[in-house]
Amino acid sequence: MVLRILAALVLAATASAAAITERAQLDCFPFGTAKLPKFGHGAPKRTREDWWCSAEHQYGFMGFSYPLEDDDCSGPSNSFTQINADFKRMKKEFGSTMVRIYAPQCRDATIWKTLIRAGIANNMAVIPQIWWGFEDNQDLWMLSRTAFFSVLNDPLYGPVAPYVFHSLAFGSEPIGDFVDGGYDGFIADLNITRQMLQPYGIPISMSEDWDRAGILASDDRTSLGPVGIKIAPLMDNLQLHPMPYYHANIYPSADTTWPYFEWYMDFIARNLPGKPILITETQWASFEGGAHDRGWGNPGEDIGNFTIFWNLIQSSDHCAFWKKYRVGWFVHTFDDSQESGLGMIDDDGNVKMKFAPAKC
Ligand SMILES: *[C@@H]1O[C@H](CO)[C@@H](O)[C@H](O)[C@H]1NC(C)=O
Ligand SMILES: *[C@@H]1O[C@H](CO)[C@@H](O)[C@H](O)[C@H]1NC(C)=O
Predict the structure, then answer these.
(1) Tens digits of per-residue pLDDT, 49-102?
(2) From the CB of 191, is ligand 1 less than 6 Å away?
(3) Where is the signal peptide (predicted)?
C-alpha cells in the first residue's frame, strides 16, 4: 500500500503539469473548454453523454457545498443576485467548476430556475438536491420534486437543464435522518424518482455517509449492510460524507484524521466499485458553538484544526490519492452565513485560511 502510494506520488509529480493542461483542454463540461450557450439560447447542440466530462476526469477539488436554507423563496439568499455573486467568487477565486446545493428549503420552481441561470452565467455545473428537512411536515420534499420536474418540462429552462444539472441528490443523509417513513419508503421513492429522471438522462444519487454500521455498512464495517445492499443498485454515482469530524473519540484533532479517508475510500472501492465518486460533505468547525458540535467534548473546534483539516484535503500529496480513486471533493460549506463555523469564508467575507487546492 505504502509503496503503491509512493509510486503514484512520483508518477503524479512528473505527470501533473501535463495532466492539468490535458483536462482543461478537453472539449467537455465542466472541467474542459465546453461552454454553455447564453441563457435563452437553448441547449448545447450535442447529446448529454457527449457534453459531460467523463468520471475518469472527475477528481480533486470541484467546488463548494452551498446551503440554501431560507424557506422564503423571495429571501435575499435565494435571489439570482446573491447566488450569481457567490458562484462567481467560487470560480474566480478558487477555480470551482461545480456547486453542490445543500438543504434547499424554497420549495417552488424559482430556485431551480435561478440555479440554472447562475450555472449558465458562470459556466458551472450544479448538483441540485431534494431536501426533506426537519419540519413536522415530512411531505415537503414532494413539493420540491414537483417543482423540479416542472422546470425540466419548462420550454425555456427544460432543454438546457440536463446540461447544467450534473445529477440529482435525493436527500442529504436521508438514511441517517430516517426520512420518508423509514428505509423501505425512502428506497421506493428513490427508485420512482430515478425512473422519472431517466427520460432527461439526469443521474441520481443520495448524499450520505456510508459508514453507518448495521445499516449502510455491515456491523464490522467491512462490507455493505442490509440497507446499503438495497440502495447500491439505485446509485448512479456516489455522493459521500466521510466525517472524521463526528468521530472525535477516535480522531480528537484534525492532524489525526487522514487514516479515516484512506479507510473510507478503500471501503468504497471494494464495496461500491465502478461508480463515479464525489465527496459532497466533509467538514470542520473553525470555532466552538457553531452550527454543529463534534460531541465528545468538542475537541479541536478551532481555526488551527480547521486549517490543518483543509490543508490535508487540499495538499498536493493527497491530490494523487484523490486522483487514484477518481474522487472529486467539495468544501462544506462556502461561507458561515447558514452553517456557522463550517464555512471557508467568515461573516466578514474573509477567507479563513490560505485555500488554494492543489491541481493534479
Ligand atoms: C425499482 O422499481 C422497479 C420497477 O417497479 C422494480 O422492478 C425494481 O425491483 C425496483 N428496484 C428496487 C431496488 O427497489
Ligand atoms: C487542535 O485541537 C487539539 C484538541 O483540542 C488541540 O490540543 C490543539 O492545540 C489544536 N491544534 C491547533 C493547531 O490549534
Answers:
(1) 999 999 999 999 999 999 999 999 999 999 999 999 999 999 999 999 999 999
(2) yes
(3) 1-17
Of the pLDDT bands very low, low, confident and very high (cuts 50, 70, 90), residue 18 is: low
Ligand 2 site, residue 304, Cβ cutoff 6 A:
yes
Closest residue to atom 7 of ligand 1, CA basis: 191
Whether 257 lines ligand 2, by a CB cut-off of 6 Å, is no
In terms of residue numbers, what domain contains 315?
2-332
Q: 245, 282 in Cβ contact below 8 A?
A: yes
Tally of domains in the chain: 1
Please tell me the pTM assigned to this model: 0.94
User: CB-side exposure of 40: number of CA atoms within 13 Å?
Assistant: 0
Please report, for the chain, how many H helices and E strands are present, in that order: 11, 9
Residue 300: nearest ligand to its CA? Answer: 2
Q: Give tens-digit pLDDT for 114-172.
A: 999 999 999 999 999 999 999 989 999 999 999 999 999 999 999 999 999 999 999 99
Ligand lying closest to the C-alpha of residue 248: 2
8-state DSSP, 316? H
In a domain, 341, yes or no: no
Beta-strand (E) ranges in 160-234?
168-172, 204-208
Write the Ramachandran bin of 297: left for phi over 0, alpha for psi from -120 to 50, otherwise beta: left
CB 258 within 8 A of CB 5: no
Looking up residue 248, the CATH number of its domain turns out to be 3.20.20
Distance 216 CA to ligand 1 centre (A): 19
Give the pLDDT confidence score for residue 2 in this predicted structure: 44
187 lines ligand 1 (CB under 6 A): yes
Q: Is residue 225 part of a domain?
A: yes
DSSP H or E segment with residue 129: strand 129-130
Ligand 1 nearest-atom number relative to CA 191: 1
Report if residue 102 sits inside a domain: yes
Q: Is 234 in the pocket of ligand 1 (CB under 6 A)?
A: yes
Question: Closest residue (by CA) to atom 8 of ligand 2?
Answer: 300
Residue whose Cα lies nearest atom 4 of ligand 2: it is 300
Cα 254 to averaged position of ligand 2 atoms, centre (Å): 8
